[in-house]
Design brief:
The protein has 483 residues and is mainly α. It contains 22 helices and 2 strands. The protein has helices at 3-20, 22-30, 34-57, 68-93, 99-110, 126-141, 143-148, 159-165, 178-202, 207-218, 236-249, 254-260, 264-268, 271-293, 299-314, 329-341, 354-372, 389-413, 420-431, 452-466, 470-473, 478-481; strands at residues 380-382, 385-387. A two-stranded antiparallel ribbon has the order 1-2. Strand 1 and strand 2 (385-387) form a beta hairpin. It is globular and about 65 Å long. The N and C termini lie close together (7 Å).
Length: 483
Amino acid sequence: MNPKSVIRLLSYIVLFMAAIMLVPTAVSYGYGEGKVVLSFAMAIVPMLFIAAIGIAFTKDVRDMRISVKDSYLFVSLSWITLTFFGALPLYFSGVLENFSLCFFEIMSGFTTTGATAMSGLDTTYKGILFWRSMTNWLGGMGIVVLFVAILPALGVKGTALYGAESVGPTKDKLRPKIKETAIILWSIYLGISLLEFVLLLFGGIGWFDAICVTFSTMGAAGYAPHDLSIAFYQSAYVEWVCIIFMFLSGANFALYYWVLHRKFDKMLADGEFRLYLKIVLGSVLLIVINLLSKGLYGLWDALRYASFHVVSLMTTTGFTSTDYTLWPAFSQIILLLLCFIGGCSGSASGGIKVVRIGVMARLFRNSMRRRIHPNAVTEVRLGNCTYSASTVEGIAGFVVFYITNVIVATLLISLTGIDLLIGFTSVVLTIGNVGVGFGGIGTSYTFAIYPDWAIWLFSFLMLVGRLELYTVYALFTRDFWHR
């Protein structure tokens, strides 16, 4: 362990975030929101002060090598620290009644969950709405992955940090240097975001709404600037634009690098992407048939709403365009299962991830085959990728640990006396970074219905869900702190 290096890096990333927070401050100033400008200033000034102290205290650090343990500690503390400071503008501006709700709101933003404790968004300060949507965008590709791009200037190699924050069992290294990979991924992310922003402008929704929706779509997060979410716009065009870009944000961003280099075969050969596409199309088809059989919509509207909510919940974005909780139970169960699955590894999405579901399905198939043919030699393949026994074991362990977290957290939340369905889906949508659930949570009412201790538990679940359990839970093990 190298605690001084961790402190120095934390100081730099706090300084980095203080600079980023000048953007929503400028937005607040542009809208004449003096109280919000002051609220941001009251957060930025202590951030600069604390960062300066940390940098001065560690000025004698010459060796900035980061071990795996250091990276786990730094990444976990980064998300907690930045959430703390990011919550201060909400607290000082008084948009939420206490700090626990403010912390929850920004943790939900950075982890791209999109679950909210706020209501009355249509009359909320523009600067605050911009900031919460911006946290979605920053968290989508990863705060630390962005920071990794500038680490070489600080004399640090970012490989361990990239691995601690990147999601999924596979972490694509597009170039020999992690800095170059981080820059490529963020450039692709920025480019696709700009394209969506322009297309939304053609939908006539205004620059502010267009950029907020873009931030939340690309971050697979779901913070909208209106209480009615995307339903506010009553526009099929806006919904289809969101469907396309939510789908893109749910796929592995590394694939777009190969597409830009005209290596389309790499995307088509990717087993996880193919499975992702099959699940989306299959789910849409089943829900459309179910909605039509109940006579709820015509064919066009059934396709539109089914496509929107399948993609929204599977990519864990959490936008809504109609009240899907009024749909038949069959359709709602499909949507709930999609929340568990999530998007692809290397995407902005949460959930268990498509690759893990695919590997577990093939593991089950192989187990059945060996029952029938005991001497059969089997391997776990997904597309053109073969997974080793240790990788499959790790994936199985993750899935079991993930489900265990859901069960234990649901048991704890039941102590609040909340309805079982609401409590269960609240846990699923926070650990899966989804944002909206069933029983009304996230659609009819917000997380402000819960007591403070439950709000802190949900904040923890969002953090462990975004950092894929092990990065955070490793800090609670005895082995982690042993030399």
